[in-house]
Amino acid sequence: MSQSAITLSRISKSFGPTQVLKEISLEVSPGEVLVLIGASGSGKSTVLRIMSGLETADGGEIWVNKVPLHDRKRSSEICGHVGMVFQQFNLFPHKTALGNVTLALIKAQKLSEAEANKRGMAALTRVGLAERAHYYPAQLSGGQQQRVAIARALAVEPKIMFFDEATSALDPELVGEVMEVMRSLAREGMTMVVVTHEMGFARKTADRVVFMDQGVIAEQGSPEQIFVNPQNPRTQQFLSRVLEH
Question: Of 16, 32, 50, 156, which one is least surrounded by beta carbons within 10 A?
């Protein structure tokens, strides 16, 4: 076992007759910000879901924080190691921001309400929402709701954070505030794997960019290499289309 935070070795995955991942191998170092880019259907979200234990691979080995996710008997050990933020906020409308953040701490981690509230407030402070702790989701903007979702993921004190298109459901003017929270986590040294269409984020914040195409890693490298001097014709084609917009 290497010292990687995440190791994927020859991961395959099919949905019905469609093979979405074809023997993917990838390592993520502790503290690294890895950004996955590619067209819809290229397999990037499936990779993320397999890394976070939400999806099981058909073949290959996955180690996340030394937990062998490919071993069904041990895969539940991943709980608490990772935090996941999705496109949809999935907040409970009848609970306040703080109530949403503390729910898993009380139910799953069995913390006392006082301890959960303390940890929940610390998480909300990290995303700049301490003063909105007692607001309900309907009283918050989309960007604020997504920051509550990030706080909820952070409250379990994960070693690794996964973001799956965390800004794609937001109005353009709200994207910046969520990206800024993600950048601040990167500066703190959080290990992060991010699927995004936000090329500015990939360029400024990633340590490494992986371009996926039709279920394989077509190219990977530093943001400079990928954005300034991509080698693979598919990468060039994808970026020319995306960056024109």
Answer: 16
Q: Per-residue pLDDT tens for 25-67? A: 999 999 999 999 999 889 999 999 999 988 999 999 999 988 8
For the segment 116-140, what is each residue's pLDDT rounded down to a tens digit? 999 999 999 999 999 999 999 999 9
Cβ–Cβ under 8 Å, residues 7 and 27? yes
Amino acid 199 reads M
